[in-house]
Amino acid sequence: MSQDSKVKTTESTPPAPTKVRKWLPVLDPSGDYYYWWLNTMVFPIMYNLIIIVCRACFPDLQHSYLVAWFVLDYTSDLLYLLDIGVRFHTGFLEQGILVVDKGMIASRYVRTWSFLLDLASLVPTDAAYVQLGPHIPTLRLNRFLRVPRLFEAFDRTETRTAYPNAFRIAKLMIYIFVVIHWNSCLYFALSRYLGFGRDAWVYPDPAQPGFERLRRQYLYSFYFSTLILTTVGDTPLPAREEEYLFMVGDFLLAVMGFATIMGSMSSVIYNMNTADAAFYPDHALVKKYMKLQHVNRRLERRVIDWYQHLQINKKMTNEVAILQHLPERLRAEVAVSVHLSTLSRVQIFQNCEASLLEELVLKLQPQTYSPGEYVCRKGDIGREMYIIREGQLAVVADDGVTQYAVLGAGLYFGEISIINIKGNMSGNRRTANIKSLGYSDLFCLSKEDLREVLSEYPQAQAVMEEKGREILLKMNKLDVNAEAAEIALQEATESRLKGLDQQLDDLQTKFARLLAELESSALKIAYRIERLEWQTREWPMPEDMGEADDEAEPGEGTSKDGEEKAGQEGPSGLE
To answer: What is the mean pLDDT of the chain?
Structure first.
């Protein structure tokens, strides 16, 4: 590697992580502990979403179990508070390596909207119990602000489960249940406001036998709401304006939401992965293949972690397919705008023409490597070069442990084996072992595409070849004598080519002259033939000569005189 590359590598290396105490570890956002904590947070969030509204609309429920509600409320608040602590101890990826510095983690977390929502969800609004009484659970509605954490838990589970489609259906049913539950609570609250048993639409009078029980009240309300939101019908006609408004709102909600989802369930299941498949590779088929082939669990875990990394960090490996329908110039502009910051850090592309960048980005193939994975090994046949987009890679010895250098974002490698450097004793073989330290995003450029691009930009090709010579000299892989002999042979070949070009030019000149002479001779011959045709038209035809002989029969002398005269005229006429 050149000195400039080493300097850039040193600058791009993040500071060494500080030591963390064992009793306060930093969690990996893609690890198991963080995943199980997210699943734990599902319970307090779902508790608040379901129970608070139910307690506010069913007073008997609130009064009957007041102590239990206090215990569950403040237990969920404690979990909310612990969740903020977990967020302060959850690392994040920088250049593909997990950052475990608590100061950096805290600084990053407090600048996000999630921190503000988490704080707002823990505001002690229930302190108003002192003045308003303990039977107003709506004071805790700010706990709903922690719902994004629930969505994150669902998304993480969806990437880990072996049955993602079944989980999506279960998640959809949970959403439907929450909507019907809330609607049933509002229905009971509206019935209580209008008066139980006032008409057939509201909840019957609790004085009637059986309708005073809390379970009956909730089940009746849930059943009634299900009939409305599924648009099944068979519900009593509303009699008051408030009832009409409630029915209209429910019908609109049913048309926009639940009825549409239930009516197109098959298409939803079929197209459930369409959006993700457009950006991320389909991991369901790979999981199925590994399960059928009985791949060992360690390797299977590595594959799943790789897919999870792509989806969590929104990494795409098929950018060319995504942009394939755009016009070529527009596709090049989009690719340059996305990857310009990476390409501008590459030394050979810093002062190049914009057209070179446009051609280059259209041929780059993004690839992502997992921690500890080898990008290339010494002795492998080199068919492509790599540009580091994000992450860190190490040049290691054959033992895989000893590190010679660390490569960071903006550097490139692999060009030695695909560029025809004179005197290269390694040929097209790799000269080093390159291993990814963390998750690394690389751009791959094949030998054929590189030749096609650099053939139009000889200056960039010369810079890359010079860099390759410097690296080969440091590694004692450059044969100077062979390089000089190859240069001399190339010069001799070029001289012979120039001589052959000159001879070819001379032959073309002679051929042009011969062709001109041939055309001139052909014109002369055609002119002479045409002249002979005009002269022979005056000659008598054979029939005319026969009639002349018949007329000359009475006198032989006359015939002889005519023959002599014709003999005399014939040669003169031919001449």
So the answer is: 80
SS3 at position 242: helix
Tens of pLDDT, residue by residue over 463-490, are 777 777 777 777 777 776 665 666 666 7
Please name every residue paired with 374 in a beta bridge, in sequence order, or none if there are none: 435
Residues 534, 540, 545: CA angle, nearest 5 degrees: 170
DSSP designation for 426: T
Cβ burial 488-517 (10 Å sphere, 16+ → b, else e) = eeeeeeeeeeeeeeeeeeeeeeeeeeeeee
Beta strands 440-446 and 365-369 are antiparallel
* Domain segments of the chain as ranges: 32-266, 283-313, 319-478
Measure CA of the first residue to CA of the last residue in the chain; give whole Å.
93
Who contacts 266 (Cβ-Cβ below 8 Å, separation ≥6)? none
Cβ-in-10-Å burial (0-12, 13-18, 19+) of 301 comes to exposed
Report CA 48 to chain centroid distance, whole Å.
38
Phi, psi of 387 (to 5 degrees): -120, 130
pLDDT for res 8 = 41
Reported as a single tens digit per residue, the pLDDT across 270-329 is 655 565 666 666 677 788 888 888 888 888 888 888 888 877 777 776 676 777 778 877
Q: What is the pLDDT of residue 400?
A: 83
- The 8-class DSSP code of residue 50 comes to H
Residues 455/420, Cβ–Cβ less than 8 Å: no
405: three-class secondary structure by DSSP: strand
The two three-digit tokens of residue 340, written as one number? 């310009």
- The CA-based angle 99-100-102, given to 5 degrees, is 115
Separation of CA 519 from chain center: 65
Tokens 């700010």 appear where? 142
Contact yes or no for 397/404 (Cβ under 8 A) = yes
Q: Which fold has domain 319-478?
A: Jelly Rolls (2.60.120)
Residue 87 corresponds to which tokens in the numbers above?
């967020």
What's the pTM?
0.61
Q: What's the CA gap between 417 and 481, in Å, rounded? A: 20
| Secondary-structure breakdown of the chain: helix, strand, coil percentages, each rounded to the nearest 5 | 65, 10, 25
Strand 384-390 vs strand 97-99: parallel, antiparallel, or unpaired? unpaired
**What pLDDT digit, counting tens, does each position of 404-436 carry?**
889 888 888 877 777 777 766 666 778 788 999
Strand partners, 142: none
* Cα–chain center distance at 300: 23
Among residues 567, 322, 324, 359, the alpha carbon closest in space to that of 452 is found at 359
Name, of 257-261, 322-326, 341-345, 519-523, the range with top average pLDDT: 519-523
DSSP state of 345: T
For β-strands 365-369 and 97-99, DSSP reports them as unpaired
* Contact between 375 and 393 (Cβ < 8 Å): yes
